[in-house]
Write a structure and sequence with these properties.
The chain has 498 residues and is mainly beta. 4% of the residues lie in helices and 47% in strands. The chain has a 15-stranded mixed sheet that branches. Strands 4, 7, 9, 11, 14, 17, 19, 20, 22 and 24 form a ten-stranded mixed sheet that branches. Strands 27, 29, 30, 32, 35 and 37 form a six-stranded antiparallel sheet that branches. The chain is elongated and about 105 Å long.
């Protein structure tokens, strides 16, 4: 067995000097009978190297240059770090070729997984390990290049080609979260066969539990009907530098925020990418910071939420998706209200516009408020009625009837959702600005109209105020249930260009 220090010095310089190896040795798959020519199947030899490393408690399995055939899944149940001699590269081809410095070629049954990291104990984590510096060629047969279930503290730096499902899949299938992993680099090329046209490059997938706090850097590649990066049932992951290109006629996206497997993608951060983006229904809290205006289309299904900020590198103008208020208040002047029964236009203190609601008569004003651009689903909590009087009142009250309704276009506006008779105190001196809050708590849905009617019950026994009640305006208080965006829409400029 070659010592760690000798291996590092001879092969990788200082690149692996900080890797912890429990057994103190490097497990070279060639020493277990792996065939770098690819003529003989190397599955058993790789398994033996992994098993020996696992028996030592974990460490490094080295895969030197060569084409290694794999006919069945390589399971890794201990913190084993598989280090290879190099990935693919071909300067004569934009997408490279199928032959890397270290290449694993799948010769097994269609749909199989090439490497699978998973603890041997259900509901347990597997911490430590990973695979770096290799090319995995599914040869249009393999389903998944690398899969990790309920894993943590792993590193991946790979190239994957010609798989049917996922290049790299990280999930929670062993009954625990996957977390704290690092994808240093992933190059993905789907291939040209119809068998692999739906494959994803990287997929983070959960369920009732998912993938969290994973750091993804440098994902690039070519896809068709699958997605380069697909995030489903996962949260609090961060991504940097995603560059993808969809093949001609493809329907995939560079980034898809998905609603799948019992949950949605939410609260993930993405910094700079090029390519198309789509958010599926129910996804929320995902923020994309795109520092140039280059890239593909941005879309979101109804009920999705997508926060997208982009800076135009030629004008420095900042564009962003539609923002919604979490809480808001809208002030309504008397000019936006309508005179109804008996009420008249007045002049408060002989100087200011108002509506006069006379004494000893039923009089009414009202409001029809069109949809408010910044309001999504939420609640209109209360309406503040601003008023004054033209007469001195001592320990008096005025009686009112308030009706309110929120409804969408085409809905009935005949039956109020709030209809109450109330009494408001009046201060002693005239021409003092006063207000009275009416708590309505009406559910508001995006694009609803809001209707409000205020009647002074001048003949009511509770109305003891003398003179006119003079309405100065209203304030409507709204509380949202959460932000929402129906898609990119036209971006709103929030800062000028230079």
């Amino acid at each position: 067995m070659q010592k760690v220090s000798e291996f590092v010095s001879a092969n990788l310089g200082n690149a692996l000097s900080n890797i912890k190896t429990w057994g103190g040795v490097i497990y070279n798959i060639n020493e277990y009978g792996a065939d770098p020519s690819g003529l003989m199947d190397s599955t058993s030899a790789i398994r033996q190297a992994v098993s020996a490393c696992s028996d030592a408690g974990g460490g490094v399995v080295y895969c030197p240059s060569g084409q290694f055939s794999i006919s069945d899944t390589i399971y890794i149940a201990k913190p084993v770090f598989i280090v290879c001699a190099g990935k693919g590269g071909d300067s004569s081809n934009t997408n490279g070729n199928n032959s890397g410095t270290t290449t694993f070629n799948w010769t097994g049954t269609p749909g199989g997984t090439m490497f699978y990291f998973i603890s041997g104990t259900p509901s347990n984590y597997l911490f430590g390990g990973g695979i770096v510096n290799c090319l995995l060629n599914g040869q249009n047969l393999a389903g998944i290049g690398i899969r990790g279930s309920s894993i943590g503290y792993m590193r991946f730096n790979i190239e994957v080609r010609k798989v049917r499902q996922d290049g790299l899949l990280i999930d929670a299938a062993n009954g625990a979260l996957s977390q704290f992993n690092i994808v240093e680099e992933l190059k993905f090329v789907y291939g040209s066969s119809s068998d692999v046209a739906n494959a994803n490059g990287l997929r983070l997938s959960g369920g009732t539990i998912g993938v969290t706090q994973t750091h993804v850097m440098n994902v690039e590649g070519l896809y068709k009907n699958g997605d380069l990066v697909r995030v489903e049932s996962s949260d609090n992951n961060d991504f940097a530098k995603i560059h993808g290109f969809v093949d001609t006629g493809g329907t995939g996206k560079t980034l898809r925020l998905a609603n799948a497997n019992g949950g949605v993608a939410y609260n993930n951060l993405f910094v700079y990418f090029s390519g198309a983006v789509h958010a599926e229904t129910g996804t929320f809290g995902n923020r994309i910071l795109h520092f140039t205006s280059e890239g593909g289309s941005v879309s979101a299904a109804a009920g999705a939420q997508l926060h997208y900020n982009v800076e135009d590198y030629t004008t420095s103008g900042v564009f962003q998706t539609h923002e919604y208020a979490m809480s808001d208040q809208k002030d309504i002047p008397v000019g936006a209200m309508a005179i109804m029964d008996v009420a008249t236009a007045g002049i408060a203190a002989l100087q200011w516009p108002c509506f006069d609601l006379p004494d000893a008569a039923d009089s009414r004003v009202g409001l029809s408020l069109p949809p408010v651009y910044k309001w999504n689903n939420g609640t209109i909590q209360k309406v503040r009625i601003w008023f004054t009087t033209d007469t001195n009142n001592t320990s008096k009250t005025w009686a009112m009837r308030v009706r309110a309704l929120a409804g969408s276009s085409g809905s009935s506006s005949t039956t109020p959702k709030y209809d109450q008779s109330l009494v408001s105190p009046v201060v002693d001196l005239p021409y003092r600005t006063q207000y009275f809050d009416v708590t309505v708590n009406i559910a508001y849905t995006k694009d609803d109209f809001f209707y409000f009617s205020l009647m002074r019950l001048g003949n009511d026994t509770g109305d003891t105020a003398l003179g006119k009640i003079q309405i100065l305006g209203l304030t409507i208080f709204y509380q949202g249930t959460g932000p929402y965006s129906p898609g990119s829409g036209p971006f709103a400029v929030t800062s000028p260009g230079y």
